[in-house]
Structure formats: structure tokens, C-alpha cells
Amino acid sequence: QVQLVESGGGLVQAGGSLRLSCAASGNIFSINAMGWYRQAPGKQRELVATITSGSTNYADSVKGRFTISRDNAKNTVYLQMNSLKPEDTAVYYCYLQLAGLVPRHYWGKGTLVTVSS
């Protein structure tokens, strides 16, 4: 059993900053990747950023504004979001991929980020 607990969402004005955290717990042996996806009302879930042991990947829409990082000792991933825009408003979901013959994928319940104009 693996649990992902997100925190840090909320309401912020355009141009402001927020920091999301996601702590993974349970039967975690080897992590391939962690990351963040988001889903705005009426839209499909989309990738925001992912991080592996050797690299990071960002959606074009957040490059230069968002930074993903990871604390391996705590199995925690962070998303520092700066220069927020109203179009960043969405539910942000934490993502975890565990290594194995068949990689396993887990999702958090989501945290709402609302950016007012």
C-alpha cells in the first residue's frame, strides 16, 4: 500500500507564489519518478513537471516559473510555483512511479490551486 499526501494549495493573486509538497509513504522500494500533473475545470489532466534521479521535465507553459525538487530521504517531492497566472488555476495531483518488472503508478487526491486576477 502506497499513500501520497499533498499539501500547499490555496488561493493566491496573480504574480504570487505557492509551494506544493507531496509525501509518499508505505511500501516504497525504488522510485523511478515523481511529479505533478494538473487538471483545470473542463480540461484533461496534463503534465506539469516530473523528476527522476537524473533529470527534470517541465511543461512548456510552466518553464522558467515552476521548479520541481525532491528529498529522497523523505520520499517527498516539491513544486515551487512562482509568477502564478490565472491559467495555472487547477487541481494539482502528485504522481509516483515505482520501479519493478511492471512499473506501478500512484496518484494523490489532489490539492486545489486558485490564482485570482
Structure summarized in a few sentences:
The protein is mostly beta strands and 117 residues long.
List keywords for this structure.
11 strands, globular, mainly beta, 117 residues, 4-stranded antiparallel beta sheet
Explain what the structure shows.
By secondary structure, this protein is an all-beta fold. Helices cover 0% and strands 58% of the residues. The chain is built from no helices and 11 strands. The strands form 2 sheets. Strands 2, 4, 5, 6, 9, 10 and 11 form a 7-stranded mixed sheet that branches. It has a 4-stranded antiparallel sheet with strand order 1-3-8-7, with no helix packed on it. A hairpin with a 4-residue loop joins strand 7 and strand 8 (76-81). The mean pLDDT is 96.
Q: What letter string, H or E per element, gives the SSE order?
A: EEEEEEEEEEE
Which residues form runs of ≥5 with pLDDT under 50?
none
Shape: globular
Strand content: over 45%
Biggest sheet features: 7 strands, mixed
Please give the share of residues in helix. under 10%
Q: How would you classify the helix and strand content by structural class?
A: mainly beta
Global mean pLDDT: 96
Record field, number of beta strands: 11
Cα radius of gyration in angstroms: 14 Å
Span from first to last CA? Answer: 40 Å
DSSP helical segment count = 0
